[in-house]
Records
---
Amino acid sequence: MSTLDLQALLPVILLGAGALTLMLSEVYLTSGRRAYQSGLAFLVAVAAGLAAAVAPERTLPGGQAVSDGFSSFVICVVCAGLALSVLLGRGWLERRGIERGEYYALALFGTSGMALLGMATDLLLAFIAIEVMSLAVYALAAYPRRGQRPSEAAFKYFIIGSFASALFLYGSALVYGATGTTLFSGIGRGGGALLATGLALVLAGLAFKVAAVPFHAWTPDVYEGAPTPVTAFMAAGVKAAAFALLARGFLAMVAGTSVGTGAQLGGVLGLLAVLSMVVGNLFALPQRNVKRMLAYSSIAHAGYLLVGVLAAGSQPSRQSGISAVLFYLAAYAVTVIGAFAVVTALERVTPSPDVEAANPWDLSRFAGLAKSRPGLAFAMAIFMFSLAGVPPTAGFVAKFAVFQAAVSARAYGLAVVGVLTSVLGAYYYLRVVVAMYMGPARDGEEAEHAPVPMAVAIALAALAVVALGVGPESIATLARAAATRL
Amino acid sequence: MAILLNVVLFLPLFGALAAALLPRGEAAQHKSWALLVSLVTFFLSLGLWFNFDGARSGPEFQFETHVPWISALGIGYHVGLDGVALLLVMLTTALTPIVVLAAWKDVQERVKEFFIAILFLETAMIGTFAALDLVLFYVFYEAILVPMYLLIGIWGSENRIYATVKFFVYTFAASVLMLVAILYVYFHDGGTFDYVAARQSLSVTRDAAVWLFAAFALAFAVKVPMFPLHTWLPDAHTEAPTAGSVILAGVLLKMGTFGFLRYALPLFPEAALQFRGLVAALAVVGIIYGALMSMVQTDMKRLVAYSSVSHLGFVMLGMMAITAEGVTGSVYQMLNHGVSTGGLFLLVGLLKERRHTRLIADYGGIAKQVPWIATIFVIVTLSSIGLPGTNGFVGEFLILSGTWLSRLKSPAWYAALGAVGVILGAVYMLTLVQRVFFGKLDNPENRKIPDLSLREAFVMVPILVLIVVMGLLPQPFLETARPSVDRLLGRMQAAELRLRQAEPGLRPLVGTEPPAVAMARPPAEPAPGPAPEPAPSPHGSN
């Protein structure tokens, strides 16, 4: 392993080392002051992102992972997600007095898995990366330990996640049986029913991870039950990493297999995309629980991302498809973290973790927010408009790029389904804005001021959403450059 | 001079950002600031008006700026004005300070947000008319929804939330398909979103053009709104605060008709020729239906809202005539409607501010109490029903004569039914005036209504001036629109030629029937020429 190889792996190494440091620091901590832990985690996230940005282009020995523009972009997105979630988690944990170094350590471990997932070009390495990521996130979901919801969420997530991992692993084994290799580049060597079954199982496993319909059933419960900062981290990070692998894998499959198999895979993916867009948006429609609504919306957004991945599979729109997916991931990450951050800021702290507040995320919590907390309400409005895809926000540019790629790939039907379902989206996102700006103010309790780190995270996310909507040039160019170097 | 358009375009936005820094409690500062910014914008836009080269040989688009915006996606920042766009920009910049002044006392809550929304809206409206890049246009077109949605939803009356969500979802749903159409255009015109380039090099099959035209037309038809897609309008207009109604009626509806004129017709002329009969028929249905609905309303605002459906039907009818008179009249009627319906909403707002009711039955005989408001209301009403000497007459006359002479199938029917709409218009508007202002003053509540204040006089005077000036001196406005109208007709004629090559036996489609050509050449002169249809009704005179 040369220095350049190490340099290419530096983001993963930094994240892992940071996680270990945080674990140890907790062991030797005597003063009980933990403010530095979140600071350290934040710095590691920034450093890993920077390291990814300057990582050399390299294929690592054995060809199981590469460092290229695509992986750099994905790592930057997950690191940005991590940094924001750390800020968010700090405020949330401190309020409840359950801040521990392990929380940040787990988040860093999870992110190292995500980073590796962005680089993986081998089914086995991808499996390891998925497990590193998932185990950390299972634990994070159960982090508060007491209280029913987190445990239930973590348990469901663990069971279903393990099931998905098993599918993925079994699929990989079948692919190995058919082709004699687990490398993406070697998929073309085999053929027949064995390979097709294997690839289908791998796809199914990934569809679980990205929460595409019909493999989405776990999402609402888990997103709702997990502590909100963890949900934000899952929605931004896990989704980005899983989509990175899905995109890489799908492109390799299309390139490697015969035209017929490629078209079949595309058809399956197109079906998943349509189902995700329709079902996600339709199920989000009646939700009064904002957290659950955001969970269903994340399913819908997985559908839009799948449209981009699918477009990337056809030759003329390959680059625009990949860069659209990358841009979408970045835009969705900042928007959804921001939205969950506002949800976090509005959560009441119950006197004991065993007592759970009734309807903590009900729409009525948002009623009259524009009067009592104008800044918070304005930020939430920006996030909602971005999720709905209204210009001039990041969400619009992202949807635009994805549909542009789809039209370029002549997938007109997908584009039309996409824009029409996004109208449904406008309806339920607007309901939050209606509650905040037009609903009667709640009397009695005042919303507490958000803790400083949380407020910083919200402000950063809102700024990013507007900046990506008004001046997306730099990020769009980066995404395009990343797409050419895949 | 290109910089001037950019300044006019973004000054309100920067004004809004600056207003965000002012403290929330300082309501007076926010009002004054918004008024100052919108006035400066208006005076700067006068620079555009006086520097515009309206000669036929002049460049089609002026004050152009063309720089890349999101080059990774092929989107450019391309703005510029032709005559029609210039007129509509002027309408926007003139109405905004009026609206700000009108909202002075009306808005008591969340003053800061209100005026920020108005200024943001102004930039988006100007941008919609100035954009020459399809995506830039779409961005401005959609960006309008956000502040308008907030204006109706926060400051509207009882049923505001239903109205605003309906408004947003309706318009959003209709316009997303236009986005797909824009993307399709991108891949069939050599990979550009630039409007001018796309118009040159777009090559799509006949079938595809039909679908594309349908997608654009759907988006614009909802915005206009054309029957039967108008159902959001009565709710939105009625529930919106006065300022919102004035902007909705004055400018936002024009974005639909402007969209037809700028995008749907020139980009897909063959498809437009194919469907003009249908669109014109819907326009006529809208004229009659809107007028009939207006006659039975008990709520003043709703009445004016339905009258908008009727008036916008005229705009669409004139446009679909595809004759010089019809299209010119259509453009002129866009301005007229902005002025007179805007004025009516302002007046209804004045009354509502005083009596807190919009029901016609609650008024009656108040002319004695408020002679000034009554006088102005009558003048604006006369303009709205197209009495000769007011702006409304010029527009309606041009539209009806242009339709009569056009090559629509059986054009006389369209014109005659349109003329019926004019008469119905006189009926419902004069009935309204009579029931509100004349008769017996029998409600004691109405004895306490104060007359026009000085501020309100400043709001109404510009409207009155415009009504008279545009009625007596239409020439400068028509001349400004002329080159754009001629270019559009040229484009439609070229399309007709192409159609005829494919199908030699085709009857003529564009322009007027031959004997009429000489007579109707100078479209600006309303007086001479035998007008075959009843001139806008004599009911209006008294």
---
Amino acid sequence: MTTALLRAHELGLIGCQVCGLVCREPTRPDAACPRCGSALRRRKPDSVRRTWALLIAAFIVYIPANVLPIMRTVSPGDVDDNTILTGVVELWEKGSQELAIIVFTASIVVPMLKFLVLGTLLVCAQRGTSWAQPQRARLYRLIELIGHWSMLDVFVVALLTALVRFSLLSSVEPLPGVIFFGLTVVLTMFAALSFDPRMTWDDKGRE
Amino acid sequence: MASSQIVLQLLSGRSPVRPSWLICEDCDTVYLRRELAAGEVAVCARCGAVLERHIRFSVDALAALVLTALIVFIMGNMWPVATLSLNGREISATLWDMILIMWRDHSRIIGAITAITLFYFPLLNMMGIGWLLLFARQGRRAPGFRLLMITMHYLGPWTMSEVFVLGALVAMVKAKSYFEVMPNPGIYAYAALMVLITVFASIDLRRLWDVVPDHSP
């Protein structure tokens, strides 16, 4: 069964990464797709290094994103700063436990999962191992699919800031943590986009 | 699919371009394209990625869908999302209030992220698709077809209207422990938009490359 599944380079073909057109392997290295004009490349350029760089950058901003408070609630005689985690706890205690689980997933589980999965995928790709290839492929698609849901907390803080403006009585302000968190989400999304899932199938044993 | 079949085709064809073929984007496996019946999904036998889905909507139906989404989007942006009240004072906010307050008073970065992912990209996306489909209905490629198709490809992951719906819900529940919270029509429009966007997400617009012929010399 596996012998029947030929890959593009084995057939001298190349698929355009932007429009999907299947072309014959071009002779020139700087060839463009005849249909959409994008550069024809076998792989996303410099995938391993770019993904590592973005992932490490994301991890660096992820630390202040969690340690610093993301939101301040001011009411007469009381100033309350919330981090991402205390925000989830508060939602669990005062609001809705179902929503608390959703926020916990989007803000804490998903970013952690992205670091773990992309890190693992990169190490595996660099070693050229054939270990758990179908599972690795599935994990990558999962990361791609759920990545942007982490922006949830950023939108929560932004909307609360816009709504809670009762001057001296009560107000909500965003704090620097939310900026770092937003940057974490953007950087991990770029990291996932720059990772080339084709690398998962480049095991050295079969080439 | 037999590999000998592919190789035979490869050797016999002279054209450098093979529109009847398909390459899995996640693992580079080559397939011959087959017409899909209603509800069918072509899945890569090596990595399990979706290669192609049957599109159950006609171009006309898709155009109608985009138009609906666009109208709902405009309503969602005009109407406030929610109203809070405290001691008889009421404050409501639209999506743009939120973006502007962030940009002006607090953080430019968050203002920019929200403006891009919740307003500019979704709007550009819908108008772009609408424009392409408008001409596709007449079997023509719209002016700027190539540029738009490429733009749509890169825009894909950065529209987050559906995340905003959930975010607004969380914000309202959080506010509920301190204020009286009233959901406004804006959030209902957004909820409808969320459904429409989910429908769109299952449609691979890249089929337009094949469906609409290129008449340019």
---
Amino acid sequence: MINAARLENAEVAFDRLYTSEYAGTTRTKRALFRAHRTTNWVISGDTWASSGWVVTYDTESKWTVPGGTTGSYYLIPYSGRVWDLYFKFGFSGIGGNNAAAAKLALAADVFQSIGSDSRFVISGETNVKAFRPSVPLTAGDKIYFGAWCSTALTIPPVMFGGVVPEIVVRDVGPA
Amino acid sequence: MTHATGNAVWKNYPDTSTLINAARLNNDETVLDNLHTREYGGVTRTRPALFRAYYTGSFAINGTLYVQAGWTVDIDTDSAWTVPGAPTPSYYTIPYSGRFWDLQISFPTTSTPVDGAMTTKIMLNTAADQTAAIASDSRSTNGWEGNINCFRPCVPLVAGDKIYFSLWTSTALTVSPTFGYWYPHIMVRDAGPV
């Protein structure tokens, strides 16, 4: 017999699917933030992504740009989820025995990093890519993106046709 | 309370505020359709597209080497991997629009050029690693084991886009599986709706 309880079973199953996949019954997709540069980026010492990044997707409007050289950040919009964090930049033209690094951090402070990558530079192209998947974060956490090189340099906006400095933050499911 | 479908909590007869009617049943159908479209790329699909291939033999790299014939495809949900035949580069054709895609190529080698480098690239629509790349990775090398992993997440692509892959090392070397089963491999996967 069709009754309210059985109909509710189906409704609750949908509710749970939406909550699991999209973090809420009124949501229709997961949070995603994606930005890249279209201009040169000068790195000297610890340099935090600040102004000058072009946002192509920000489903929750959580990219905050204080301005100038103050570090910009992505504000985690809701709790109970795990997140992929990705920050990549590349360059060429630097001589040997240098190094470059990228940081994913909870503040504009390398000692509050939760993800890191580093590359030894000999010659030719260098690609630094900090990627950490499935990081459990909570609403209000701020994610900063830092770059460093042992010598000051300019990161070009594009290499090899379409390789760009890029930031991606995405909700990848329930914690 | 309202459910994800838009329906209110169901109540038993004789309450008439939640009568079963076409609109309420259709709400349930629509939410399922939407889930299939968002998760799998269409109402008739049951999984998102995924392609994985690996190379079990050995191959020589001498300058830029585009991925071509000889790769073992272990999953290709949409039969989108095209192999024209060596030396023409193979490619993956994006099967449907409106989605983000994760792209990856990695390869290992047991020995590397001293004071050298190894790189990989992923290209869009043209097998031209210097002008058509949309992802790149590189490693400086010093004679020992080398591993490179080019990964770019959430790339918005459209149906018909062709994805090519290439490998390069600063001096010629032969790539083969390392440490048992660590093969050169490539991966393309649907990462969700744009």
---
Amino acid sequence: MSVQRFYFDHNATTPIAPEVLETLTSCLGQVYGNASSIHHFGQAAKQRLEAARRQLAVLIHANPNEVVFTSGGTEADNMAVLGVARAAAGPSKHVVTTAVEHPAVLGPCAQLEREGVAVTRLRVGSDGVVDPDDVRRALRPDTVLVSVMHANNELGTIQPVEEIARIARRAGVPFHVDGVQALGKIPVDVETAGIDLYSVSGHKVYAPKGVGALYVRGGTKLAPIAFGGHHERGRRPGTENVPGIAAFGVAAEVAGCNLTSECDRLTVLRDRLENAVTSRISGVAINGSRWKRTPNTSNICFEGIEGEALVIALDLRGFAVSTGAACSSGAVAPSHVLTAIGLPPERARASMRFSLGRGNTAEQVDALVDALEGAVAHLRRISVYA
Amino acid sequence: MSGGVDSSTVAALLVRQGHPVVGLTMQLWNQRRLPELAAEGGTTGRCCSLDDVYDARRVAEQIGIPYYVVNFERQFEEQVVKPFVEEYLAGRTPIPCTLCNNYIKFDRFLEMAESVGASRMATGHYARIRRDDASGRWQLLRAVDGSKDQTYFLFGLTQQQLARTMFPLGEMTKPEVRELARSMNLAVAAKGDSQEICFVPNGDYAAFLHAYLEESGVPKEPTRGSIVTTDGRTLGEHAGVHHFTVGQRRGLGVATGEPLYVIATDPERQRVVVGGNDELLRARFFVKGVNWISIAGLAEPTRAQVKIRNKHAAAPATLHAAGDAARVEVVFDEPQRAVTPGQGAVFYHGNLVLGGGWIE
């Protein structure tokens, strides 16, 4: 069985861009020095490392020396949440976050709770957006960190991080933003927004897995979560993954160049998908805000179907989509994000995430809609439980 | 595909025969639950372990078929595990495999198979399905390999379910299946057989019950009671009727001259009734919830061989209609040992499965 395959799961991960692949393979083959070494080989590696740091800094409007490379988004989130909370002084500590964060933030928050830190997880509206006033009201004298994601991985909804940054700044509380799903999809400006820490991941922007970064505003107190050498200005020990980081740098540059045009192109494609689905298939609803969203993400509920079955049926027809976060595939519990926006379990389980990217075309979207129409009709015919 | 040799061989066989095949594995139980049980016996050989999924995935890759894990933990909990626990607490001896076949495998899972576009579902069960042209019915027959026959657990299959099911191993013996798996170089050819109740480690259902109730936060009621003889003498104490099943000899903790067996359990009075081997014998009993397979029902008293537990050799009996089509009185020619409420009673005519139900 050989089928033509189309990829609509770019929020899970992205393919490596051709320019990025070229950098990656040339670095892997030739730039093998340890960036900490004094000699020529070390210096060559160091040059690639610092070039990448500058490229990423440009994309998020940061100073290059405020960029710390990590092994990925999860490590960056852990460094920020655990690092800031543990570095703060005081007998009692409090962290404010939201109920729709990625597990890479919710996990370390739960760990902080076990260590005696109080955690407030703010609820979101049915649009998936957190109310900045809720952040203001949640702040306490002992609040040491506010952590809110920029764009949600399942819904694509964009949080009002600029407004929340102003609130946190006024209260003197460091503000962390998980920007993994925003980087390369919408403009990011940590300087203007007044964000103190910003997590990003390479493989969501057409760079390889295993590389990420944390922006740390100068002066932010951060306790280390790993111990060893003095790499990354003493903020993250471990020999740098130079090929991965160099690839991430190139990916950031490419993303910056294409940001506006790709944003417009994906918005058109996403709207084409949603308009066709809502007009051709009955019993569908778009989850979360239709307006404050990344241009590539669409989360749609198909009433009466089992999402798991639809993912498999579509995959067998050559279309890769997902029911939610790839990290929680196979989980029994319905998505915590869809639950947080008020979806009952059966609607959450009937929901699908389509996340578009560079490789997708209008023809692919049309083919996806055809396949969806057939598969949903088939599933609804079979299911006696619908 | 469970990751075992049987279902792996089925998948490989169907591919070899030229069928387009999709491999599906059911995730039924979260191995991270009830860690105290895992600590005792380890998790190898238990259902839905990551090792089993790894094996199934490896076979699917080897034979070149699309493969997916589908999650039915929620349904398994509701339809199989909870009833299993409730039955034990009510003093009966349940068979979760039959519940799983009736409510998960040949119901939700079959529906999933159809949902993803499969016209039929093949499993590694040892049983045979045949269409009888005279009656127009789908019939179920014992496997050629009598020692592996699993029809006892399949008595709940409806005509629609049988019409969409294939049991390719029904015509083969287990050694033949292993030989076939080896000849096709399947990675799991030498893997050991799975245990009977997949979610109960080491067959210690009492420990499972204890851990499960602890986890669900059910307030523990005192379960201690007395062990009494059929003529009313108290012989000793027990820790709870759910530790006992009819016919059990070991673990009574009372010493008497002649061997004693559990004759009945009485959860209401928390008594375990014991007696001699002869007292276990029963000649007649009722079966409820009967599903007819190879015949449409009982028009008149019908001769059959009746099997009252998996390891029981089916014994000659006469089936009498008892009220409605789903209730039958079984009258054995010779009284049989340990007719146990909650177990299945399956009616055979030679290799043909007529139907079956639950012992009252």
